[in-house]
Design goal:
Elements (H helix, E strand, L loop, with lengths): L2 H11 L3 H12 L5 H9 L6 E7 L5 H14 L4 E7 L6 H15 L4 E7 L7 H14 L4 E5 L5 H8 L3 E6 L6 H4 L10 E4 L7 H15 L9 E3 L8 H16 L5 H26 L5 H8 L5 H13 L14
Helix pairs in contact: 1-2, 2-3, 2-6, 4-5, 6-7, 11-13
The structure holds guanosine-5'-triphosphate and magnesium ion.
Guanosine-5'-triphosphate binds next to helix 4 and helix 5.
Length: 327
């Protein structure tokens, strides 16, 4: 490994925030040596408790994350926050709002904040988030909180890779309970109804509880549903109590671990395979020959895809490599 990278790792190990930020950028941008960094730090990770916070836009996720990050910081934990920005042009205002709210807490010495775009993440958003979590973990963050708007499949995947998932909703958010995306409901470990200072929260709490009663198997534990207000701080104590239990449980060993690792290896494989095949294709005439065959009616996209997979991704006998096979 390059000496510069080794030095960066060494400084991040000692919790140097500049080195931590640089290391994250290096890996996020997939600069040369990124994988060596991840390999080098892996053995020293796995300690951090990862809390995913998701929910409808404007539910108060950032306000709540700010609140419990401060409290956890005061309890002596070091915190990393990953704010996954909705990079859609429609939510430009929300991103700015996030930054302002996040700025309030970024002056806390125990809190390190990192924003992440949802688009254009090399290697996929979920893997990028996992990598950032892991680097923060290596740099000694006890707790990493990931905030995402629970709208896209990618984002659901991001939170599902967390140890615990907090789902935030609020009264007045339209058809709030119906708005909870299928797929998020199942992965939530706690349901938080925010903005209870406004009224109407009890109705949402009962609706969610009724829904959980119906959908949860009798052998499963029903996740808690609590109402809070990031403004008046009502219910925040209860929320902190539950989060502390999560953190405690994580320290005793997470049952998700094996499944998470399986998913991670699959996701790394998927992106690496696609990258490799793309490279092979572009250095082998960029499919010009095959495209001509399709255009002239002599082949079709399905057969070409099959043929390219055979040619570039399947090594039948590694000793007899053909030209164009993976090296
Ligand atoms: N009345 C009331 N308003 C709140 C509460 N918490 C947050 N808000 C307001 O709700 C709006 C959205 O809050 P955010 O914390 O940015 O919500 P978010 O879920 O992070 O929003 P996005 O990241 O844009 O999806 C802001 O105007 C907050 O001031 C609360 O407990 N009560
Ligand atoms: Mg937010």
């Amino acid at each position: 490994m390059e000496e510069k990278l080794a030095l960066m790792i060494e400084a991040a190990r000692k919790s140097n925030e500049r080195a931590l930020a640089k290391l994250i950028s290096h890996v996020e941008d997939r600069k040369p040596g990124w994988k060596d960094i991840m390999k080098a730090i892996y053995a020293e990770t796995g300690r951090t408790c990862v809390i995913g916070v998701t929910g409808s836009p404007g539910a108060g996720k950032s306000s709540l994350v700010g609140e419990f990050a401060k409290q956890l910081g005061d309890m002596g934990y070091t915190i990393g926050i990953i704010a996954v920005d909705p990079s859609s042009p429609f939510s430009g205002g929300a991103v700015l709002g996030d930054r302002i709210r996040m700025r309030d807490i970024s002056t806390y010495k125990n809190i390190f904040i990192r924003s992440m775009a949802t688009r254009g993440m090399l290697g996929g958003l979920c893997q990028a988030a996992r990598d950032v979590v892991r680097i923060m973990d290596f740099a000694g963050r006890d707790i990493v909180i990931i905030e995402t708007v629970g709208v896209g499949q990618d984002e659901i995947e991001v939170v599902s890779a967390s140890d615990y998932v907090v789902l935030v909703t609020y009264p007045g958010g339209g058809d709030s309970v119906q708005a909870i995306k299928a797929g998020v409901m199942e992965i939530a470990d706690i349901f938080v109804v925010n903005k209870c200072d406004r009224g109407g929260a009890d109705v949402i709490v009962s609706e969610i509880s009724a829904m959980l009663d119906l959908s949860t198997e009798t052998t499963e534990e029903i996740p808690p549903v609590i109402k809070v207000s990031a403004f008046t701080k009502e219910g925040i104590d209860k929320l902190m109590e539950i989060l502390s239990e999560f953190i405690q449980k994580k320290n005793e060993g997470s049952h998700y671990q094996k499944e998470h690792i399986r998913q991670e290896v699959m996701s790394i494989l998927e992106t690496e395979m696609v990258t490799l095949i793309k490279e092979k294709i572009s250095s082998n005439g960029n499919m010009e020959k095959e495209l001509k065959l399709i255009l002239s009616g002599k082949s079709d996209p399905y057969s070409v895809a099959d043929e390219l997979i055979k040619r570039f991704a399947v090594i039948k006998n590694p000793k007899q490599k053909r030209k164009g096979d993976f090296q």
